[in-house]
């Protein structure tokens, strides 16, 4: 067998890891360096599996947003190529990795709770390797706590070097100390590493990383870094590969997709990128998360209107209906501007679905502020809303603000918000009742295995009679009855 020296290879497509010459030094450049360490780790795992007389297994747990979910698909791809088999048995897995979220304090507490349980497991199985990555690991105090209170954790890395998993694992395999590798930032976007998708027919695609908005309640810019846009040709190439592999729908991911292109030399906007992606043959649906109201352009609204591949759905985070609170949040728009934007969207795309995020209990929130939020909910007529109780995050400006709202008041307002959202959304979403709509079937219904579930282009769920053979296909369905936030339907012949 002719072995390959990865220091001198440009095209890695279809690379067989077993053909990598591991006697040569590791390449200094990416992604070749990671493929080199994947080959090294694969050799180790193969040998270990032979010693054990069984395949080595891994367990992953993902906390947080769709960006984290997409990162986890990359981690899974690397682990599978190394030679591990995925398992849902956390306690008996050989390798356990948590991809963490730190948007809310409760997320951190959940992780610490899970680690406490794993400590007992690790005592019984000393060869288990435990890894921690993601946003939570970008907090210095968290890393210090792991060093002192959770010394049994073997590998710790953050958001900027997800791609280094194989290299860090090999360091762990061949060393006897905790491997900790936290980067403060990076300008590097490493392409071409393997991924393992949850769904064969749809996929998330990162178009940018980081955030420059610095909303006062949000820790994301501190743990994800400043905005970096991927090159459009790399995005197009990735989506073309996904389509050739059976993907029908892509979700374009970024903390603020409206800012796409600002860090690139090319004259490109998010709307222009959407129009280019829509030209890809075989791609049927394009979604995106998440735009910011402050810079959602007419150009973007028109791009959605003009192209049937771009789904009729915009997630437009409100956070608060109070202009006073929006200023304290550093959201850079007012209640009036937001409602004008909603009107513009609905006038341009009458059948659009609009969803949102709303925070209750931000520091200093008065009853008047809260009533402004309810007023926007009634006027915007959201199809649904993700509602949150404000969570103080150490390190953000809001954590130091006066006027923290009492728990009783927050709970009362939260319940009133839920009731208002439910009333408004249920009434608004009924507008589709009796219509025929295309549905991308995603899975078997959780409650009845004779039914399937999927989403319309407007992101609303539909349940109807069907079997697993329909999964991944787009089916025309008659919407029989609205059940609040979803529909029951009948497949059209």
Strand order of the largest sheet: 2-1-3-4-5-6
- Tell me how many strands there are: 19
Output the structural class: alpha/beta
* Overall mean confidence score, pLDDT: 94
SSE layout and pairing:
Layout: H1 32-52, E1 57-62, H2 66-82, E2 85-86, E3 95-100, H3 105-124, E4 129-134, H4 140-149, E5 155-157, H5 165-174, E6 179-181, E7 202-206, E8 208-209, H6 220-224, E9 228-229, H7 232-244, E10 249-253, H8 270-277, E11 285-289, H9 298-306, E12 313-315, H10 323-328, H11 335-348, E13 353-360, H12 367-380, E14 384-389, H13 407-429, E15 436-444, E16 451-455, E17 461-465, E18 474-482, E19 486-491
Parallel strand pairs: 1-2, 1-3, 3-4, 4-5, 5-6, 7-10, 10-11, 12-13, 13-14, 17-19
Antiparallel strand pairs: 8-9, 15-16, 15-18, 16-17, 18-19
How would you concisely characterize the structure shown here?
The chain has 13 helices and 19 strands. With 493 residues, the protein is of the alpha/beta class.
């Amino acid at each position: 067998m002719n072995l390959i020296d990865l220091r001198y290879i440009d095209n890695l497509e279809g690379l067989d890891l077993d053909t990598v010459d591991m006697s040569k030094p590791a390449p200094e450049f990416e992604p070749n360096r990671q493929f080199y360490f994947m080959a090294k780790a694969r050799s180790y795992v193969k040998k270990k599996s032979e010693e054990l007389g069984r395949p080595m297994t891994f367990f992953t747990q993902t906390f947080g947003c769709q960006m984290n979910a997409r990162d986890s698909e990359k981690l899974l791809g690397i682990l599978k190529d190394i030679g591990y088999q995925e398992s849902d048995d956390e306690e008996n897995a050989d390798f356990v990795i948590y991809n963490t979220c730190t948007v809310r304090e409760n997320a951190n507490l959940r992780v610490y709770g899970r680690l406490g349980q794993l400590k007992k497991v690790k005592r019984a199985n000393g060869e288990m390797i435990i890894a921690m990555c993601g946003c939570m690991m970008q907090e210095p105090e968290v890393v210090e706590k792991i060093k002192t209170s959770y010394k049994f954790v073997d590998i710790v890395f953050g958001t900027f070097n997800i791609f280094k998993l194989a290299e860090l694992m090999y360091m762990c395999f061949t060393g006897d100390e905790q491997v900790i590798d936290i980067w403060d930032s990076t300008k590097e976007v490493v392409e071409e590493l393997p991924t393992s998708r949850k769904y064969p027919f749809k996929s998330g695609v990162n178009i940018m990383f980081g955030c420059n908005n610095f909303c006062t309640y949000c820790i994301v810019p501190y743990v994800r870094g400043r905005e970096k846009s991927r090159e459009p040709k790399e995005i197009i190439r990735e989506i073309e590969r996904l389509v050739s592999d059976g993907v029908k729908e892509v979700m374009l991911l970024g903390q603020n997709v409206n800012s796409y292109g600002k860090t690139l030399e090319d004259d490109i906007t998010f709307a222009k990128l959407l129009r280019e992606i829509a030209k890809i043959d075989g791609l049927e649906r394009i979604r995106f998360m998440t735009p910011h109201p402050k810079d959602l352009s007419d150009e973007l609204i028109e791009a959605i209107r003009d192209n049937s591949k771009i789904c009729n759905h915009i997630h437009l985070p409100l956070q608060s209906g109070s202009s006073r609170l929006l200023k304290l949040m550093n959201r850079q728009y007012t209640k009036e501007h937001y409602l004008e934007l909603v009107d513009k969207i609905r006038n341009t795309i009458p059948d659009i679905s609009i969803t949102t995020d709303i925070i209750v209990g931000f520091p200093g929130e008065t009853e008047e502020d809260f009533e402004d939020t309810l007023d926007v909910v009634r006027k915007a007529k959201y199809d649904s809303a993700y509602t949150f109780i404000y969570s103080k995050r150490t390190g953000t400006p809001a954590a130091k603000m006066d006027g923290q709202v009492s728990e009783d008041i927050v709970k009362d307002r939260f319940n009133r918000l839920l009731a208002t959202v439910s009333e408004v959304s249920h009434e608004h979403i009924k507008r589709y009742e009796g219509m025929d709509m295309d549905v991308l079937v995603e899975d078997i219904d959780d409650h009845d295995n004779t039914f399937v579930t999927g989403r319309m282009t407007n992101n609303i769920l539909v349940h109807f009679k069907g079997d697993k053979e329909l999964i991944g296909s787009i089916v025309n369905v008659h919407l029989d009855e609205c059940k609040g936030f979803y529909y029951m339907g009948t497949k059209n012949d």
